[in-house]
Amino acid sequence: MHSVELNKTAGKEEVYIQLLPQMRALFEGEEDLIANLSNFCAALKEAFNWWWVGFYFVKADQLVLGPFQGPVACTRIAFGKGVCGSAWQQQKTIIVPDVHEFPGHIACSSASLSEIVLPVFGSNQTVVAVLDIDSEHLSTFDELDQKYLLELLALLKF
Questions:
Q1: 6 in a structural domain
Q2: What are the distances in angstroms from CA 123 to CA 88, 128, 156?
Q3: pTM of the predicted protein model
Q4: Would 119 be classed as within a structural domain?
Q5: Residue 120 within a domain
Q6: Domain containing 16: what range?
Q7: Most exposed: 9, 53, 86, 141, by fewest CB within 10 Å?
Q8: Which of 33, 54, 22 is nearest to 122 (CA)?
Q9: What's the pLDDT tens digit per position in 76-104?
């Protein structure tokens, strides 16, 4: 499989439903995590045209930039700092309708207006990465995104 086939005029939930089996097929038989994370980001960017989709890996006491799609990003984020560092610290998804109202928001791009960050847990149940998604529109993300993004993340082997 070399592309994602979606009805982009469908509603958000329908796009996720179309995306799930295609991403499952995309990762099937591929063991390389970086390759899978790269395609994960590309498929989500293609499906929803979000501003930025990417991963940060936990390395010692900070998050370090991993595979992503979008403009140049912050390379390192400290534990508990910004939305990404807070999601890591709290070990829970954070949905931010307006990043300007999030205390300590790190503006890697001034075009980003809303954000969702999901912690990714490894086999020992500790956070090993975060999935960070930014939109250039306010109030883009909600619990529906959280539900399906968690399902999509479950397809990956960290």
A1: no
A2: 16, 9, 12
A3: 0.94
A4: yes
A5: yes
A6: 12-153
A7: 9
A8: 33
A9: 999 999 999 999 999 999 999 999 998 77
What pLDDT does 56 receive? 98
Euclidean distance between CA atoms 113 and 52, whole angstroms: 11
CB 134 within 8 A of CB 114: yes
- Distance of alpha carbon 35 from its chain centroid, rounded? 15
Residues 88, 119: contact at Cβ < 8 Å?
yes
Query: Does any domain span residue 16?
Result: yes
Total residue count of the chain as it appears in this document: 158
Ranges assigned E (strand) in 60-108 = 62-69, 76-78, 94-96
d(CA 67, CA 39): 9
**How far is it between the farthest Cα atoms of the chain?**
43
Specify the CATH number for the domain of residue 49: 3.30.450.40
Q: How far is CA 50 from CA 46, 79, 114, in A?
A: 8, 25, 10
CA distance 43 to 34: 14
pLDDT digits (tens, 9 = 90+) for 112-154: 999 999 999 998 899 999 999 999 999 999 999 999 999 999 9
